[in-house]
Amino acid sequence: MPNPLIVMGEHHCDPRSRETLKALLVELRGLDYSRLCLEQPSQLNQAQMLKLIDSTIAVIEALVKEAMQRTLFQGTAEDFLQLPYSVLVTLLTTVTPDALKMALTIQSLIPHRILKSACELWVQMGGTLHAYDLDSAHEKAINEVTLENWIANGYKELQHREGYMSAQIKQHYGSNAGTIVLTGLGHLSGLFRCFQTMNMANNCLVVFPHASQWLGDNADQILPKLAVKLPSNTLTAIVDTQTQIAHFIKICKQRLQTLTARFTDASNAPTFTPLANASNSKPPVTTHADDSFSFMKNAFKNGF
User: Fold this and answer.
1) Rounded distance, CA 185 to CA 211, Å?
2) Whole-number pLDDT of residue 301
């Protein structure tokens, strides 16, 4: 039996999952994981995937520069990127009617930079990159006239899309190569339902660290609802501080060592225990953002 399928859930604007993934890469390669699957059009090869990440970063950096100029922001680009989501939205509202979507795009820049660094490290260690999303979904994103149309079409075809994505993932996992999947939170429960029909659900470990600012103002109410959507074999925690992140990563490493040993020694997948919190301290909850995400229309026109 191959190693358990590692599914990293994320909010695309929250860097916590990608920080955790990058911190686990050396451990995962040592445990014979070799394939990292990203939510990109499946026709792309590894070189094209890396180029797509680079072009995405370049487009968002240009957007950040323009937004700073138009809002007369006094400070560095890094200062601008560190603004809380609600503050950034308020600032952008003065210059664009698309402030909500533009803020999400801008705040995805840091996670994209982390992903670039993680992918480069993974390839240096001999790992490979694989794309698993619908080709047509990417083409629609580029060609649609408005973001609203693209979002509506995307949700209309969500079940078909997740069925395709899960089938692509199964091909990688079925090759007996240790496989890691990075996916948006919006797809996580849908993919897991597909895995259940494919008899893969018990062979998965879902890892979902998240910052409190992306849970909204009622984290105590949202977390129990989120737990219902996620499979029981999930490690999840609020990680706002570097101490909490380090603690969560340490727990993930310990769990991976235990799981891979048990998968090697036994024919049945083990039982997982969810992790409720990475530390006893309760981090503050600040702002809220919709879990849906897509790039700005002008970014589509630039070809990514």
Assistant:
1) 13
2) 33
